[in-house]
Amino acid sequence: MSNKSDNIIQLDFAEEMKNSYRDYAMSVIISRALPDVRDGLKPVQRRILYAMNELGLTPDKPHRKSARIVGDTMGKYHPHGDSSIYDALVHMSEDYSLSVPLVDGHGNFGSIDGDGAAAMRYTEARLSDGAMTLLNNLDKGLVPFVPNFDNSEKEPSVLPAMLPNLLINGTTGIAVGMATNIPPHNPGEVIDGVIAYIDNQDITTEKLMKYIPAPDFPTGGTIINQSEMAKIYATGEGKIKLRAKTEIEDGDNGRKNIVITQIPYTVAGNKTKLVETLAGLMKDKVFDEIYDVRDESSKEGIRIVIEVKKDRNIQNLLNGLYKKSALEDTYGVNLLAVKEQQPIIFNLPTLIGEFVTFQEELYTKEYQHLLEKSQNRLEIVDGLIKATDVIDLIIEILRGSSSIKQAKGCLITGDTTDINFKTKASEKEAKTLSFTERQADAILAMPLSKLIGLEILKLHEENNTLLANIAEYQRVLSDKNALFAVIKARLKAYKKTFTIPRRTMLENTENTGYVEEFKEEDIYVLIDKFGYTKSLDSASYTRASEETLKEYAHIIQMKNTDKLCLFTAQGNMFQIKASAIPKGKTKDKGALIQTLCKVDKEDILLYTSFEELFESQLLFTTKNGFIKQVSGAEFETNRSTIASTKLDADDALVSITVLTAHDILSKSMKVILLTEKGASLGFLLEEVSELKKSSRGVKAIALDSNDYVVFATAQDSNLESFTYNNKTLSAKKVRTRKRGQKGQKANLDLAE
């Protein structure tokens, strides 16, 4: 008996994971996410179209329930979730996503607004005319068929696409470690480009772009970086900048309207969100120029109206909307497709070249099929014509034979054994017969009506037609130029069927900066104890109750053109533009201060407006007992973060006091310091020098070993108290000495 351990296979975990992941990645790349370069379809799309074709859902037939289509696709060819199959079916019906939809949907298949399709049990579908260009000739053996997932059916590994679907409709797919993003193009332009490639297979990208200048998105809009298209088409990668199409109209009450009639392709299927974003920009007063936003779209087309207040710069507003909304967006191009089970990035000429090579294969097989079919038919027609000439003999053979097999043998080989003939002459003539097996079958199946003179004439006409066709097929197959002429002729026919005017316009537009337009006004910045920050206009602040305002740890009055300045114990200053602080109401939570600047986990000692800061002096006091005055003008900068002072490695700020001009000129300001060990010291403010922010400062107090400053303030020497750690202490009990001396321990309680 063998040991169970003998059946255990030892595997290296890392190697097994690598191999398994590689297999999974290739499965996703080849079998799920990326299109075949020949027909431009992902496997799920190909299987849906094939299943619909098998159900007979051609454009001339009634629509069939989508649930039936999904069921057949899933059960026979695509063993994945029904929702993913239905989503793919819906996508192939979207005229705002595809230049030539492949599915003709009936019912609610969603909309450009972002509305989802109805459940598959409610909708119906059939193949479109565009889909038939991919499915025609499927029965002629032009493409290989492979077993399905359970080996119960056969499915095509590629469709015999005779329209360049990959370029016309584009595609999007995310695989493992790679993605494809091929934009849709104008059908007429693509066909012209394919024909130009056939005429000159060494054609350059530049010359090819005379026919295919850029993508043509179903949603229209404008490509504003046309000059970059040559590089994108040459490399197969790049970014297209798309902009909505807008018009300026006269509105009510002397106002002007910006009317959006076409949207960027990236917003297709999400128009409602775009409208909500525009309305949000108005509501949040990001653009004070906007009076109203309305969506007046209908079946006739898109119409989004932005009503602009009187006497405002509309072009400047448009520049701002392009910058802060999806009215201008970027489409990342990546011409990635599968060729011979390998993902490859193509450029425009090689992508068209693969389609042309595929067409050459398809048309060669098609004409071989037609030639074989015509030759087989010619054989039969020739036999029938010969049979009409000896029809009396054939009838005699049939009447004298005891079986069809015996009669057929005589027709093919002239074997007259055991056949009863009326005369020896007939038997002798029968021995000369030499019909082929196919001819013999046709003769035996021939109805007597074929002996009518008119029918015999038709056989001769058909014979002549077949001879002409065979000659033509042989000519096409023997001459590559003739084959290409046939391909071009069919493409030109497709062009007449599917041609549409270009929808996406092409420009080279410089991005003009937006100059923010707003009136200077007072605002109030409210910061709660958790660091949540928002701004209120004067009217909202005035309406707020005292109880509500008590909830906020800091309230700073400033202009909406000003900046909020934050000073930290770590010696840094952070700036936040007032416009960047979320506007809101008293009930709104606001945004965390850490999300508005890079203050992170630093301890904030002071909040102030830059305007107040500029007109003041700051008194810095550190833990190690250094002090200095710094002019607020020192902190004027465009940078969001600067060092506010110089600190030793073991030092930190404990206090930053704002001093007005009156404080400094009064000569009566007293600095009060407290230490951890209970020492206190007071001295006149005029003893503290004004220094640069880059200096460490001067000695404020002589500290005992292991002692450090915990509190500092500056106030009028006539004041009798100050507040520290939520306690009111006596200022008069703090002994006034010279700066830099040791502090004195004293009980500063007011009650004693």
Question: Which features characterize this protein?
Answer:
752 residues; alpha+beta; Topoisomerase II, domain 5; Gyrase A, domain 2; Topoisomerase, domain 3; 4 domains; four-stranded mixed β-sheet; four-stranded antiparallel β-sheet; 23 helices; 35% helix
How does this structure look, described?
With 752 residues, the chain is an alpha+beta fold. It has 4 domains: 41-160, Topoisomerase II, domain 5 (Alpha-Beta Complex); 245-326, Gyrase A, domain 2; 360-497, Topoisomerase, domain 3 (Orthogonal Bundle); 522-745, DNA gyrase/topoisomerase IV, subunit A, C-terminal (Neuraminidase). The chain is built from 23 helices and 35 strands. Strands 14-9-8-17 form a 4-stranded mixed sheet. The chain has a 4-stranded antiparallel sheet with strand order 10-11-13-12, covered by helices on one side. Strand 6 (171-174) and strand 7 form a beta hairpin. The radius of gyration is 43 Å and the shape is elongated. It starts with 12 loop residues before the first helix and ends in a 7-residue tail after the last strand.
